[in-house]
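Sample entry as discussed:
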Amino acid sequence: MFATLLRQPPDSAVLLHLATDMLAAGRLVAARASTNALRPLIGEVVEFAELEVRLLMNEGRSEEAAQCLDRAIVRMPDAVALRVCRAETRLRAGDAPGAASEAAVAVTLDPDHIGAKGVLGMALIEVGWLRDAAICLAEAVRNAPGHTLYRMALAHALDRDGCEDEAVAVLEQGFAHVPKDPSLRIAAITAEMRRRRFDHAEALASAARREGIADACVFGLLGHALSSLGRHEEAAEAYAEALKLAPEDPYVRHLVTASGILPSASRAPAEYIETVFDGYADRFDDHLISLGYRVPGLVRAKLLAGLPAEAREGAFGPILDLGCGTGLMAVVLSDMRLDGLVGVDLSKGMLAQARTRGLYTELHQRDIEEFLAHDCRVWPIIVATDVLCYLGSLATLFVLIRERLTSKGRFLFTVEKRVPDVSEASLDNTAGWSLHRLGRYVHTESYIQSCAAESGLAVHAIEHHDMRLEAGAPVAGLLVVVGRAGLDG
C-alpha cells in the first residue's frame, strides 16, 4: 500500500502510517493533527491524497473531499486508489451511475484491483444491474474472502436477483473467514427471518450464541425467531440478554417490553402500549415513512370511494380516529372539509405530536375500548389504522363499535393478516388470531367475517394490501369496512 513512500523522508512515512491508523481507529482529531503536520513534508503521494480525502469524508466535509479528489486525480490520473475513492464518495452521495463509471475506469486501469471490483459491484446494484454486480462482487470476494462489506453486498445482489439460497450460502461461508464479526451472522439471520424460515433463523442465532459472538442484535433476532415459533418464554430470555448488552437501546427495550405479553392474552396490556409509544413518538413518523407505510392513504381512498358525491363536495363527518397516534390520518384528510375530527390514543407522547398538527377538534388519552364504552356519541365514520394489531380478540371492540355507529355509519380499519409460517408452530388454527412477533396480533379474514357477524356488524368490503415493510419484506394486511347489520347503508 505504501510503495510510493519509499521516495519520501523516513519521518513522512512514519507519520502517514500513524495518521492512517488513527483514521481507521476513528480518532479523527488525532488523524487531522497528524495530517496537518505531514502536509508540508510530503510531495505528490497517492496515499496522502487518499488519506486526506477519507479524513474529510469522515469529518462530514463531503464537498471539500470531492474537490480534493478532483485536484488529486488531475495531478495523478492513473492512480487507481484515487479513482476507487472517488467512486466511493459518489456512491455515498447517491450518485450510483457516477460511481459505477468511476469504478469502471479504476477496473480498466487495474483489472486485479479488489477495491475497484467491489465498489463497481456495489454501484451496479444501485443502478439495477444485478447479474453484473454479482459477477464483480463474486470476484472481489474470491480474492478477499474476509472482506465483510463485499460479501454482504454480493449476498444482497443475489437476494434481489431471486437467488435467495445462494445469498444465504454466501453469508454463511463468510463465518469461517471472519469468525468474530457478528455482522455476517446478523445478515444471514435477517435473511432467513425475511423468508419466514424462523427455524433456520433460530438455528443461526443459537449457533452464534454458543460460539460466543452474539451481540445485542443477535439476541434480539433470536427473540424474534423464537417468538415466531411460538416459544415465547425462550424469546423473553433472549430479549432480556439483549437488554443486558444494550441497556440504553430503545429498540431493544421495545423488544423486551413486547416479550412480556403472554401468548394467550387476548390483547396487549395498556401499560405496554404506553411504554412503547411514549418512547417512540418523536421518531414515529420518520420510521414509518422509511418502511413504506401506506395505510392512511389506503383508508382515505376507501373512505372517499364510499361517500356520496354530495358529501365529497361538502363537509362530512365527524370522524372518530381510534389509536390516532401522531395524527397521520388527520394529515391525509387535512385538505377536506370535516365536521370535526376526534382522536383517541393511550400514549401521551403520541398525542403531544398529534396536537402540534392543529387538525383535531378533540384529543383524548384513553384506551379505545374504554372510550367507546363511556363516550355515548354516535359517529358516521370511525377509523382505526394500525391499532387493532394490539388486540387479539375483536369481539368486545366490535360490539362497542356497533353501538357507536349511526345507522348508515361505517367503521374502516386495518389488521395484519395472519399467514402460515414455514414452521406452522406459532399458529393456533382455531382462534382466528394469534400473537405474532414484536407484540402484535395477526388475524384471519374468516375471523373478521365471523366476529363481525356475531357482533351485529355487516362486512361491506375486505381488501388485501401490503401495509409496510418489516425486515425488508412486505407485511400483509387487510383493509376492512363494516357497518351495522340489518340497516340499509
Notes: Confidence is low (pLDDT under 50) at residues 1-10, 422-429. Residues 186 and 194 are 12 Å apart (CA to CA). The first strand starts at residue 319 and ends at 322.
